[in-house]
Amino acid sequence: VCLLQQLQASYSFYTWPSAPILAWFLWEHRSELPGKHIVELGAGTSLPGILAAKCGATVTLTESAVLPKSLEHVRHCCDANGLSPSQVRVVGLSWGLFLTTTFNLGCIDLIIGSDCFYDPSVFEDIIVTVAFLLDYNPEARFLTVYQERSADWSIEHLLDKWGLRCERLPIDDLGRESGTDIRELMRLPTNFKREMAESFDTDIAEMFALAAEHLSTVVSTLSSDQLLQLYGLYKQATLGTCRTTKPSWYELEAKQKWDAWNKLGAMGKEEAMASYVALVNQLSPGWEGMSDRPAANGWVAVSCLARQDSHLDESQKDIFDRVKEGDISKVRQYASEETNRIDVRDSEGMGLIHWAADRGNVDMVICLLELKSDINMLDSGGQTALHYASACGHTDVVRVLLERGADASILCDEGCQPIDVASEDDIRVLLRSVSI
């Protein structure tokens, strides 16, 4: 098996020590693999899944639906091993969410995952996904290998909560028949450890995510200047140096946000994270004990991830809340007032049409287009509504956008077209049809 790795990249671009263990376990049971359908969660460099495919299994490799570069890396790993579409397919999946891609996985014999349980904030999302798949495939099993990083981390209560049972499989004898020392497979090269330590400060990243989540609970107590300062630091921490076009002079709110971000210049992402955490500490002392779950971040950061909207009174709802709820009458009422603009962006840099596409609400998308919303409007990351609908598997929305003239060739800031992030084969077919 040939693996492509990038040591100074995101978690999914190099092989964690649990992957060789799982791969070796599958190798020792290779006679049982032909004809089986195996789904790998959080595939990354896909060592176990690729080995299973080479041993005769039909394999579906899954990675985060909001990480197009990770999905593309999985495809490169498959190509490097000469695997055909009949042997393996690559699918974007969102843990904890039951989108079209989850239902389209088909009948499954075995679910595998190596080192999926590395971040306590997603433990339950993984368990929920596994429980759902096992419920639909009662004869299937979930086989996982993971590294214990803290005695405080446990999935036992989650297994009980979702009606699952687990059995610990010993690995002491693994590799003995072939004379392989399995412990050698678990050792990372020294330069790997050094590269990993230098590339990412896990502690500050976790604190940054917690601080960002806590901020949403105290935002009403902060001044505009404080919010703008936090906005700039957040953008710098997540996207780096501001490279977006300066808004027009009459877009006062957008211009203020742009200025807050742009003035940070070439400040490093980790420095911005640290400054953000320090400012939250200053504005809300003692907040650390109030939050226990990091916010979800990534490409199309809100899309396909943040689905649980907090309850708001009618008087508190803005136009974005109306779009998320699918309240077409309120949206039309909003647009009927001359002072209101339909192509506004929220604090995340998303427009109304992005939210409608994210939610898969075809009627709302059509409504916004009838109200002259820009079909190719870009969010803060250069993504269009077509990017969102493609990534989230909303085929009907993709079809409507293409029929109404959406540009499928637009590259986002990550250098991806909608087809590069598409999570469904039928969506890719639609997108290819307009590029021919």
UniProtKB/TrEMBL annotation:
Superkingdom, natural source: Eukaryota
One term of GO molecular function: lipid binding
Amino-acid biosynthesis keyword on record: no
ANK repeat spans: 348-380, 381-413
Keywords: ANK repeat, Lipid-binding, Repeat
Database matches in PROSITE patterns: ACB_1, ACB_2, ANK_REP_REGION, ANK_REPEAT
Any Pfam family the entry gives: Ank_2
Keyword Acetylation: no
Every ACB domain range: 204-289
Family matches, as InterPro entries: Acyl-CoA-binding_prot_CS, Acyl-CoA-binding_protein, Acyl-CoA-binding_sf, Ankyrin_rpt, Ankyrin_rpt-contain_sf, FERM/acyl-CoA-bd_prot_sf, Methyltransf_16, SAM-dependent_MTases_sf
PANTHER family, A to Z: ACYL-COA-BINDING DOMAIN-CONTAINING PROTEIN 6
Name recorded for this polypeptide: Acyl-CoA-binding domain-containing protein 6
Source organism per UniProt: Ranatra chinensis
